[in-house]
Amino acid sequence: MAEVHALDDYYLAITLLITIAYQLFFFSIAFSLKFDKLTDFAGGTNFVVLASITLAFSGHHNARQIVDSIFIMIWGARLSGFLLFRIIKTGKDDRFDDKRDKFFSFLGFWVFQMIWVWTVSFPVTILNSPNVTKYKQPKFGTGRDIAGVILFAIGFLMESVSDIQKYQFRSKPENKGKVCDVGLFVWTRHPNYFGEILIQFSIFMIAVAPAAYGYVHSGAYSALYASILGPFFLTILLMFVSGLPLQERPGAKKRYESGNHWESFLEYTKRTSILIPFPPQLYVRMPTILKRTIFLEFPLYVFDPAKHADQSKVQDRQAEEGAVEGNDGRNGNE
C-alpha cells in the first residue's frame, strides 16, 4: 500500500478528527438512550482505531511500527473489553449519576476522553507518520526495543491480573465492603494504575528508538521525543486528576463516616504502598517522609478525620449503632 499523506505529515490532525467523530458518535448514543455501557468501551477501542489507521496509512510496516501498534491495540482492546464486561455486570456507572441528564456536563466527560485518547496515542501516531517513516529505521531489537517489550509485558500482566483479582474479590458476597488486599494488592494499593503507566512508557521507549539511535533528524527527531507527552499526560491524569485523587481520600472518607471496615482499611494503607509495588513488611516501617516523597503518597491523598470527615454523619452513625446495640441488649434480657 502506498503511503498516505493526510492533512499533516505527523497524522496529528487526522487522528484528532477521527477521535472527535468516534467519541461524538458514542456520546450521541449514550446521551440519547441514557446508556452507560459504551462509555469506557468507546475510549479503549478508539486507541485500536487510531493505531490501525495510522499503521495502514504509513505504507512501510517495519517491525517496530507493527510491534508498537499491536501493543497499544492489545492494551486498548483488553481495557475496553474488561470495562464493558464489568459495566454489563454492575448495570450502570455511578460516575455519571449527576451528569447523565445534563447535556454539557455529560459532553464534558466525552471531550476529556477525546483529549486522553488523542494525546496518549502520540508515540504510535508519530512513529507511523510519513515524517518519521521517510527515514531509514534501525533494525528492531535494539536495547530500547528489548527494554520496552519487557516493560510492556510486566505492565500488561500487572494491569490485567489486578483487574481480575479485584473483580473476583468483590464478586464474593462475603467480601462486601472489605478491603481488597489479595494478590498484587498486597504490594500496592493500585497495581492497575502502575501497570498502565508502565505500558505507556514502554510504548514510548520503543517508538523513540529511531531518534535515540540517530536515524531520524530535524522535526521528526523532535516529534518522537515530544511524544513522551502521551505517557506523561496519562501519569498526570492518574496521579492528580481522575485516578488516585478520586480513589484515596474520598474512599477513606466514605469508609470512616460509614464505619465500613475503617480500622482494617487504615492498617492496609499503613503497610501498603500507594502506587509503586513494595514489600509491605518494609513499607509499614518506612518513615513518613519517605512515603510522602519517594513513594508518591502525597498529602493530597491523605485522609485526616479531623479535617476531612463530616462529623455529623459519624455522630448519626454512632447513635444508630448505639440504638441497635441497646435494642439487642433489651431483646436478650426478655
Structure description:
This protein has 334 residues and is mainly α. It contains 17 helices and no strands. Helix 2 packs parallel to helix 4 (103-120), helix 3 packs parallel to helix 7 (143-171) and helix 7 (143-171) packs antiparallel against helix 8 (191-207). The termini are far apart.
What is the first-to-last residue Cα distance?
86 Å
- Are there runs of 5+ residues with pLDDT below 50, and where? none
Class derived from helix and strand content: mainly alpha
The tally of beta strands, per DSSP, is: 0
Rg result: 23 Å
Helix content: 55-70%
Biggest beta sheet summary = none
Strand content: under 5%
Q: Helix and strand succession?
A: HHHHHHHHHHHHHHHHH
Set down the secondary structure blueprint.
Layout: H1 12-33, H2 39-58, H3 63-90, H4 103-120, H5 122-127, H6 130-133, H7 143-171, H8 191-207, H9 209-212, H10 218-226, H11 229-241, H12 244-258, H13 262-271, H14 280-283, H15 288-292, H16 305-308, H17 311-333
Helix pairs in contact: 1-2, 1-4, 2-3, 2-4, 3-7, 3-8, 4-11, 7-8, 8-11
